[in-house]
Write a structure and sequence with these properties.
172 residues, mainly beta, Immunoglobulin-like, 5-stranded mixed beta sheet, 3-stranded antiparallel beta sheet, 1 helix, 14% helix
Amino acid sequence: MTDLAQRILRLSPLALLIAVLPFAACHKSEEAQPAAGTSPAPAAAPAAAPAAAPAVPATPLKVVALTIGKSVGADHKVTAEADTFAPGDTVYAAVGTTGASPGAKLTVRWSTVSRSGAEKPAGEETKTIAPTGDAATEFHLVNPVGLATSDYKIEVLLDGQSVAAKAFRVAK
C-alpha cells in the first residue's frame, strides 16, 4: 500500500464524522425552541429517568375516625354509636380514612381488658384498602355463643402502626 492510501484509510473515520456532524447539530426537538416573541428559557438540568415505584399520592392516607356501635349502614359507617353491648350483640367498628393509597393494610385488634389492665386477644381482622378520598371500612366482633362480659379494647393499625384505640364494655 502506498503512503497516500494509508493516510486516506487513517483519515476516513474523521472525514465521516465531519460529514455527519452538521446533520446531528440541526436536529433539535420542538420543546427546545422558544415560542415566537419570547426569550429562550435557561438551560435546564437533564430530566431524571422515570421512577420504578408508583407515584406518591397527593394526600397520604390517614385514619381520622373510629366509631363503634350495634349496626352499620350501606356506607359502612356506624348508624348509632354505643360503648356498652349485650353478650349476644355484634360489635361493629367503622374506621374512617382520608387521603389516597394504592393498597394500605388496615387492621383491627379486639382485646378483653382485665381489671389489672392486662389484655387478652379476642380477635383480629385485616383488610387491604385502596381509597382515593374519604372512606369508611367496617369491621365486627361477634361470638355465636355470646361475648364474655368484660371490658374490651379495639385498636386500629394502618400499615402496622397503631393509629387509634377505643374502649367499650360487654355487660348483662
